[in-house]
Amino acid sequence: MGENGSILVVNAGSSSLKFSLFRLDAADALQLAVRGQIDGIGTMPRLKAKDVAGKTLVERDLSLEEAREVKDAIGLAGAWLREQFPGEQLLAVGHRVVHGGADYSQPVRVDEAVFTALEKLTPLAPLHEPHNLAAIRALRETRPELPQVACFDTAFHRSHPQLADLYALPWEYYEAGVRRYGFHGLSYEYIAATLPQAAPEIADGRVIVAHLGSGASLCALRAGQSVDSTMGFSPLDGIPMGTRPGAIDPGVLLYLVGQRGMTPAALEKLLYKESGMLGLSGVSNDMRQLLESPEPRARLAVDYFVHYVAKEVGALAAVLGGLDGLVFTAGVGENSPVIRARILQACAWLGVTLDPDANQRGDARITAPDSAVSAWVIPTNEELMIARHTYRCVIAV
Ligand code: AMP
């Protein structure tokens, strides 16, 4: 049992709720105890959880009545955790909240006024924010005494200079919130916090972090602060992703709506669910499957991904005025030596010299000792970042 209590981290989406329990040990350090999720909320719900060693603790189907909505799922997760860890004292809950708008540059403890302010941000992230807030609301109703902290995917990017926050639209749109917010901020913040130990020689320098997962983006860091990123107003912009196209000429969207009569709902489905690697390949959104597929269009999709990541590395290196280090993280970045090698080969002109053996082994540093720009593989940990923020907001105040 956690000697000093525990912190629950929640990431609530439209059809799944992920949760992790961190315990405070005798030295008040956060130790992961369990990681679980309820998938198929509202369709075919299923609860799964593993302990820190990866041993399955539970894997069972739930009835639809048990998990119709996020609020049911959070209740179920709580009940299972109480059963699993009787007597554990839950100190606070930290939530991943996708959008913090223009004002939240830090995590925030949620009270009535904050909750109302967050509800007003829903139009900026209509696919994600309502589910994030539903989990907070459900816990406010059932456990009003429990401190809750909202940790935003956008917050880390509020250090961007104004130029990186703007679109060249009439000013009234900026005032109304049409800005380049950036996302994956909790991942980038974790990497920035880890660099002084993991890669001290670049921690204070000019670094590009490539968060390459099913969602993917790049972030330019100067001395650990975000100065620019490839995602903008929404998580659609930037490099191509599993099912999202990345940057696209807005003229294409005008054509689809104006000439092809596409509705906003159909456009949303096309851009969030049917495009990217899946749309291009016609095979899969999953990089592993694409790399194994003999289909020419699967190869083309991989070529496209590598080309656009390398192109955006060049753009962000220009923003930074040069480059000291490149960090790979998330599913593809942490696990695919092939993709890392191909991206780094395309970035050779920047002074990156790959160490093929180190890359194949997945060492922390994957460039040759004399490489002018070093490249690294650093696993991200967004849940731990949320747990740390929650600890700081509630316990270490
Ligand atoms: P994430 O969203 O961070 O969980 O990343 C998911 C993506 O990582 C999927 O496209 C997976 O195919 C990809 N991925 C995971 N392991 C590997 C691997 N060994 N090689 C290539 N891609 C991988």
Topology:
Blueprint: E1 6-12, E2 17-24, E3 30-39, E4 46-51, E5 56-61, H1 70-84, E6 90-97, E7 108-109, H2 112-119, H3 129-142, E8 148-152, H4 171-175, H5 185-198, H6 200-203, E9 206-212, E10 216-222, E11 225-229, H7 250-258, H8 264-274, H9 276-281, H10 287-292, H11 296-320, E12 325-329, H12 330-335, H13 337-346, H14 356-361, E13 374-377, H15 382-395
Parallel strand pairs: 1-6, 6-8, 9-12, 12-13
Antiparallel strand pairs: 1-2, 2-3, 3-4, 4-5, 7-8, 9-10, 10-11
Bound molecules: adenosine monophosphate (AMP).
Written overview of the protein:
Helix content is about 40%, strand content about 20%. The chain is built from 15 helices and 13 strands. It has helices spanning about 70-85, 110-120, 130-140, 170-175, 185-200, 200-205, 250-260, 265-275, 275-280, 285-290, 295-320, 330-335, 335-345, 355-360, 380-395, and strands at about 5-10, 15-25, 30-40, 45-50, 55-60, 90-95, 110, 150, 205-210, 215-220, 225-230, 325-330, 375. The strands form two sheets. An eight-stranded mixed β-sheet has the order 5-4-3-2-1-6-8-7, sandwiched between helices. The protein has a five-stranded mixed β-sheet with strand order 11-10-9-12-13, sandwiched between helices. Strand 2 and strand 3 form a beta hairpin. Helix 1 (about 70-85) packs across helix 3, helix 5 packs across helix 15 (about 380-395) and helix 11 crosses helix 13 (about 335-345). The protein is globular, with a radius of gyration of 21 Å. The model has no long low-confidence stretch (mean pLDDT about 95). The structure holds adenosine monophosphate (AMP). Adenosine monophosphate binds next to helix 10 and helix 12.
